[in-house]
């Protein structure tokens, strides 16, 4: 592993992780510009959560994605996959250059994620896209691991708009009934969904009380604060006897001023002007971009070429 | 002289429930999901024997399907079971995305399929499940004709590393196959040889076809009977051979005529040996309450309907 890989330490290097999260945001803007379609807002808002998970929290091995001791991660809200792809590539699951194939024919980065043995990439266990299915899968996985007395943790990331799906609450009830611990649900609480603010489309509050009523431990944190998110997951990992949900408060579009907290950025990519503006707000990092556009090249470099 | 000996009447669902217990003893990874109708679908037998490996999810079939997927991802061998309509219709999206597209080898085992579930009425009569399940890529679809074949089929799922849907039935029906008859997915069983016409049947219509063959034989018509227990992948060779050798085909099933066994056979014939064909199936209508045998007669999928279809197709045979 490269020495500057923030996944190398037990103690989170917040500066390193923050820089990686910024790099992933840059990757997202470039991927979505090239793709011409896909979701901007949610993935930007989750860059800190994904960086924390894949570069510090999860017990995983990119070279051996099916490692039996791995922590399982399920992305229930499949449309958030651009941030998953960027993170998986940055973590070494597949080549960085492949990020320019998002949503393109003959590529592996499907518009909504698929496992490697259908159309997708390593690190993805099952398909998602039709909402509301991931938590049930995570619950089943955690029950299966518990039957074998294995210590693996199971994570499931849900969108807050996704909680409108009834199946989420079926799964919440099943997990509560069976007291499935080592299961950590994460709700991306950005208050935005495709049509409007979540409270306009379907009121979710009182959300913590709902989960508690279904038999879950509930933790809340700032999902755009890497240190706080990591310590909340550590707290969740120590809890026993019930499943745990972390309500991670994030801002849709975080890091790009004109996208922040605006539900209209749920499902659209930036155009070239918007991408330029976004990238100017996200300074380059030491990790480097996966692609450099012509318009990014300095006049000096252009001359050399 | 009858070609088959009926040893007893016993339900296909009973065969399912008993075999789950056997497999549970043999393989510690076998787990069973319950959706509150465990007494009806006979998974209560497994639950009693292996309470730790029986996972109750309540009346929540969408959750049940995806919980089964998670168990499979964790290395377990999950059987998810409910009534046919609720095992396939209610969670179709879950089966499509999390099982079929994701290629996760969950075993969906549905009882109470077809119109013969009877008194419960049309809401509970699953007549579209072959169509919906066969349309999914990666999915295997099979249906046993009696208690014994159900046992073999459930055992065979253990080594069948694909998503699979198995449809069986509520009623006690004749057990007429024997222990020696093989059950290999995708390989049809020719139960009776014949040269004038072939009846290709599945599920409980195989027995109806046995009765029809007896009657037709007395009338001097030589009927071949094929038990097409696997509808997907379908045994193309058996269909082509039957068409070439007998020149007329009748299909029989407890399912809508659109998208069922008949359609699958017709697809094969259309691109290989176009052959006169008649369909014995429920004719684009919902069922109603009544006894299973009464409903089979009223909705045109009983022995007499097969006899009629054979006579009709023979008139069209060149």
Task: Characterise the protein shown here.
The complex is a heterodimer of chains A (305) and B (318). By secondary structure, chain A is an alpha/beta fold. Chain A is built from 11 helices and 5 strands; from the N terminus they run αααβααβαβααβαβαα. Helix content of chain A is 38%, strand content 10%. A 5-stranded parallel sheet of chain A has the order 1-2-3-5-4, sandwiched between helices. In chain A, strand 2, helix 6 and strand 3 form a beta-alpha-beta unit. In chain A, helix 1 crosses helix 4 and helix 1 packs antiparallel against helix 10. Chain A is globular. Chain B has 318 residues and is an alpha/beta fold. Chain B has 13 helices and 14 strands. Chain B is globular, with a radius of gyration of 19 Å.
Please specify the SSE layout and strand pairing.
The complex is a heterodimer of chains A (305) and B (318).
Chain A: H1 14-35, H2 41-45, H3 47-57, E1 72-75, H4 81-91, H5 134-147, E2 154-159, H6 166-177, E3 183-189, H7 198-201, H8 207-213, E4 217-222, H9 226-238, E5 244-249, H10 272-281, H11 299-304
Helix pairs in contact in A: 1-3, 1-4, 1-10, 3-4, 3-9, 5-6
Chain B: E1 9-11, H1 12-26, E2 30-34, H2 38-41, H3 44-49, E3 54-56, H4 61-73, E4 77-83, H5 84-89, H6 92-101, E5 107-111, H7 129-134, E6 140-142, H8 147-157, E7 164-167, E8 172-174, E9 189-192, E10 197-201, H9 205-218, E11 223-227, E12 230-232, H10 236-246, E13 249-256, H11 261-271, E14 277-282, H12 292-298, H13 303-316
Parallel strand pairs in B: 2-3, 2-4, 4-5, 5-7, 6-7, 10-11, 10-13, 13-14
Antiparallel strand pairs in B: 1-8, 6-12, 9-11
Helix pairs in contact in B: 1-8, 4-6, 9-13
